[in-house]
Task: inverse folding
């Protein structure tokens, strides 16, 4: 549902939105409002930094007792030296993905804090114009 909030911006940038979700629902342990903020912030960044006319994808899958969510865009690569800093409070890159003129650099910090409060992990990769943020959540008992 969160991804639907971006339909107008996705259309304006002529992005191709790919959703890869399992047919059966995946239930996780967590605060739904906080996790919605995580997905919102990651998709917001992906739309903001994706090059016009490229693909933006959101994937969800289960593996090794966890649920994984990956938000991926195609645009400017984040320099390797910046990757360890992007989750820092108030960090805004001047060099990489410089289209980020809005905000104060709290979005990814909040994402990391929410995922950490759930005792889970978030990872980022950025190379060859593809940036992907992947986080884990504990599966709920069925």
Result:
């Amino acid at each position: 549902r969160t991804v639907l909030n971006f339909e107008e911006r996705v259309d304006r940038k002529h992005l191709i939105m790919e959703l890869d979700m399992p047919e059966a629902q995946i239930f996780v342990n967590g605060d739904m409002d906080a996790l919605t903020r995580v997905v919102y912030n990651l998709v917001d960044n992906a739309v903001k930094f994706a090059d016009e006319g490229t693909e933006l994808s959101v994937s969800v899958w289960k593996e090794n007792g966890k649920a994984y969510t990956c938000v991926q865009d195609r645009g400017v690569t984040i320099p390797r030296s910046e990757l360890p800093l992007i989750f820092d409070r108030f960090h805004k890159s001047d060099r990489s993905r410089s289209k980020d003129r809005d905000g104060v650099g709290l979005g990814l910090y909040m994402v990391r804090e929410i995922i950490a409060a759930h005792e889970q992990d978030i990872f980022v990769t950025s190379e060859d114009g593809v940036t992907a943020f992947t986080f884990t959540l504990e599966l709920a008992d069925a």
Confidence is low (pLDDT under 50) at residues 94-101.
